[in-house]
């Protein structure tokens, strides 16, 4: 049995939580019922002072950073303003407008264990699922004798570590998960009936990667820096058709207009492809033996033969593992922040991340590179969203040409 632990929330026996009523402001300790909504786990309370029902989110995942308290229909909501549209509004829609979807659930590895920890990795964002999954490595290390149950969408089930004893795979498209899972609460509580003690992992969203072996998830050997000079220079563009490289203010403004009025984005994808080609040509002029690839979600537009096109609209498990192998042989991966750069940067030697200005506060969230400090400073590059092919290619060429000197100087005398 797990002793009291700051990383876990006891669900059985349910210890309740300290809350403040959003209507009358009364602070109180409540043992109201908890509800597994999907991405969120919420607790329902009745105020001891005014008698009105209200809800709080339990501190797991992003709800730990942006806790919310609200009444029926969300009429009285206390939450950080920046989290309302992307995190809390879908929760309110799910609870009070009944937008949740019913999921087919495949349960693997159920056992007769008496105690269990639940790690909820359900999320509508690929990177959020992946970073929550890091907790599985930590939980298996800290609590190896406690049964672990991981909840995961099918699209990322392949990343669950092999030593997780029980996995629930939800056959729901990622984007649908923001609506909630209608049958989740019933399924979880049914499973809990056979357990004596149950804890909920806080599912931290950005753990210290120096303490986590990501190879347990992606099962791929990262780029070996000692071979940097001996391998053919390989550069991979990581692309998406909803995270676009737009190096002029005019183009970015027109893209926002097109998005607002739900117009076609195909022109903007074509323009992105064009500047990828321009960047590739500039790199090849300086490094004629370089090998260039494109990977990621989408397939709009034909790329020239000197860029090996590995993009896929709907990647299979085989595609995902092939991409991982490609990233692991890449000297550099180049992509827009938000274009699923976590796995590419975890596996490649270096990266160039093109950073939209409105995402500056999230700079570290799309990067999973773990390197010694000197190497990280040289091989990890962030450039402004308005950086064009000239600057991006200059960074790439410099990294390929001069990292061998950095490596030699840093490793001498060790």
Q: Topology of this structure?
A:
Layout: E1 8-12, E2 17-20, E3 27-30, E4 34-36, E5 41-46, E6 53-57, E7 69-71, E8 77-78, H1 84-96, E9 105-108, E10 115-120, H2 126-142, E11 147-153, E12 166-170, H3 184-192, E13 197-201, H4 215-218, E14 234-239, H5 249-260, H6 266-286, E15 291-296, E16 307-309, H7 317-328, E17 332-336, H8 342-347, E18 350-355, H9 373-379, E19 380-384, H10 389-411
Parallel strand pairs: 10-11, 10-13, 11-12, 14-15, 14-17, 15-16, 17-18, 18-19
Antiparallel strand pairs: 1-13, 2-3, 4-5, 5-6, 6-7, 7-8, 9-12
Question: Care to give the gist of this entry?
Answer:
This protein has 414 residues and is an alpha/beta fold. It has helices at residues 84-96, 126-142, 184-192, 215-218, 249-260, 266-286, 317-328, 342-347, 373-379, 389-411, and strands spanning 8-12, 17-20, 27-30, 34-36, 41-46, 53-57, 69-71, 77-78, 105-108, 115-120, 147-153, 166-170, 197-201, 234-239, 291-296, 307-309, 332-336, 350-355, 380-384. The radius of gyration is 23 Å and the shape is globular.
Walkthrough of the structure:
- With 414 residues, this protein is α/β, with parallel strands linked by helices.
- It has two domains: 210 residues, no CATH class; 187 residues, Rossmann fold.
- 30% of the residues lie in helices and 22% in strands.
- The protein is built from ten helices and 19 strands.
- A six-stranded mixed beta sheet has the order 1-13-10-11-12-9, with helices on one face. Strands 16-15-14-17-18-19 form a six-stranded parallel beta sheet, sandwiched between helices. A five-stranded antiparallel beta sheet has the order 4-5-6-7-8.
- Helix 6 crosses helix 10 and helix 9 packs antiparallel against helix 10.
- The longest helix has 23 residues.
- The radius of gyration is 23 Å and the shape is globular.
- The model has no long low-confidence stretch (mean pLDDT 95).
């Amino acid at each position: 049995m797990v002793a009291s632990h700051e990383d876990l929330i006891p669900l059985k026996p349910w210890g309740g939580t300290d809350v403040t009523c959003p209507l009358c402001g009364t602070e109180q300790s409540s043992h109201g019922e908890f509800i597994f909504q999907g991405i969120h786990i919420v607790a329902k309370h009745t105020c001891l002072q005014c008698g009105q029902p209200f809800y709080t989110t339990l501190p797991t995942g992003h709800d730990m950073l942006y806790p919310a308290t609200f009444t029926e229909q969300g009429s009285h909501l206390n939450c950080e303003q920046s989290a309302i549209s992307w995190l809390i509004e879908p929760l309110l829609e799910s609870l009070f407008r009944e937008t949740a979807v019913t999921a087919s659930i495949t349960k693997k590895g159920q056992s007769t264990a008496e105690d269990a920890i639940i790690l909820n990795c359900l999320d509508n964002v690929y990177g959020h699922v992946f970073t929550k999954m890091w907790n599985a490595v930590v939980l298996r290390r800290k609590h190896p004798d406690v049964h672990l149950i991981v909840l995961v969408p099918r699209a990322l089930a392949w990343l669950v570590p092999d030593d997780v004893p029980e996995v629930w795979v939800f056959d729901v498209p990622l984007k649908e998960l923001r609506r909630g899972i209608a049958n989740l609460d019933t399924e979880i509580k049914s499973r809990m009936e056979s357990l004596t003690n149950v804890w909920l992992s806080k599912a931290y969203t950005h753990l210290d990667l120096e303490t986590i072996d990501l190879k347990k998830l992606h099962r791929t050997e990262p780029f070996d820096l000692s071979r940097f000079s001996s391998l053919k220079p390989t550069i991979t563009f990581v692309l998406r058709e909803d995270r676009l490289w737009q190096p002029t203010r005019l183009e970015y403004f027109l893209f926002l207009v097109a998005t607002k009025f739900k117009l076609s984005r195909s022109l903007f994808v074509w323009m992105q492809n064009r500047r990828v080609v321009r960047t590739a040509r500039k790199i090849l002029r300086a490094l004629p033996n370089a090998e260039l690839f494109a990977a990621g979600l989408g397939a709009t537009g034909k790329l020239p033969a000197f860029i090996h096109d590995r993009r896929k609209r709907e990647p299979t498990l085989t595609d995902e593992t092939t991409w991982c192998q490609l990233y692991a042989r890449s000297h550099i991966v180049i992509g827009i922040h938000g274009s699923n750069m976590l796995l590419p940067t975890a596996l490649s030697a270096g990266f160039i991340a093109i950073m939209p200005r409105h995402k500056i506060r999230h700079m570290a969230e799309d990067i999973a590179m773990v390197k010694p400090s000197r190497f990280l400073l040289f091989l990890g590059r962030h450039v402004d969203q308005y950086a064009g092919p000239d600057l991006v290619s200059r960074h790439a060429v410099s990294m390929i040409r001069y990292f061998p000197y950095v490596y030699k100087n840093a490793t001498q005398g060790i």
